[in-house]
Amino acid sequence: MQVSGPRNPKLRTACDRCYDLKERCERATTSARCARCKRLSLSCSTVRPVRPVGRRVHREKDIVSGTTSSKRRKLEQYQPGIDAFLGVIPDQQPGEKELLLFLLSRPESLDQYVVCPSFQAEQQQSLAFQLRAALPSLKDAYLACAVTLKQLQYSTGTDVDPSISLGYISKAMSALRALPVLRPQDIVLCHTLGSALAFSIYSAIGVGVPDICRYCLGTTSPFVGTAISGSHEDPWESFLILMETTDCLVHRTTPIRRIQAPTAFVVDRHLGLCLPLMPYYHDICVISNSLLDTTDVSALDRLHKQLDGIHTFVESWQPSCLNQLVEQFDSAEIINLLAQAKVYRLGALLMSHRLRFPFGQEDVQAEIWSKEVMMELDLAKSVTNRSMRFVTLPFIIAAVEVRDESLRLKTLQRVNDYVDR
Asked: Which of 21, 102, 282, 409 is deepest in the core (most CB within 10 A)?
């Protein structure tokens, strides 16, 4: 059997970018710049830890923590690689590496960014994966996000100047406008950039978040439903849709995208068990917008029937496969996930009820659902002693119904606990 030529074992070592993206890496030696990085004008380096020789060890899942030991091992191996990768980023300003390390090497820093702690490491790996693949586009958005998270975590004890975040946000906005979305593979990058930017703007500025969400969702709409070959599942779409839907519900406008209900059991990083309810929140927004200008009796009757259909589905809905939660989350997380699901269900019932019966009609039932939302949130917080994330939408719906002056004051005091910062 003929051998075409001697094989250089060094050529089996792909650069870090090609390795992460599972792309073909072509270069003469490991010290040379590969063809792909050269074509895209990217820095080309190989600084990740050397993979151990031999077969990988498989371990059983750790039921208590909700993560596998192999995941923890990969994360531990991953952090030195992140440190080395950040060390070779060109044109870094003083303190930027420390900010990115805060975001990408400390899972607890993402507490405000996910629905429960078990998703912190997974969210961090997604952020790091995207940064390696698209550093120039994401760097400023990540820095803005890091400043925001640091301020939220340490409150007034941080040494980071809040105005620094505005500079990074401005540059990240320019990066988003310049980002070409030409193929399905660009969806995740656009959503990652938009989510990091929206999160930072929400905390640092407070206005403009819906515009970011609509821009990202509108830009990627042509590729919705298209298979994304070779890419990871998009973990950012639900965040953008939630933020936009909340704004549309308040201002009675129509959301750009109706999220697809999952066909299998899914616990979302932001919406937890509530993904199956989000299409109905979209429909509620559409109906609410239509009711603004509709006076035709037959059209009103059709919209009311749609509301009745939403009510029927949501009233009977409950999360599926709850036994699987025990294998993935601790008891406090399960309590908060179930409470989140319950208040989203109650919020949808209350909102559809209010569109069917304006204020002054059937107020007793609306008040009951409003009180149930508040009681569920308070009960979960008292049992777990943890703040709940991503329950702003049902909280707002329930808060509108509070009429008693003393209860309104109490509701105002709850804002810091149940409205995301």
From this structure: 282
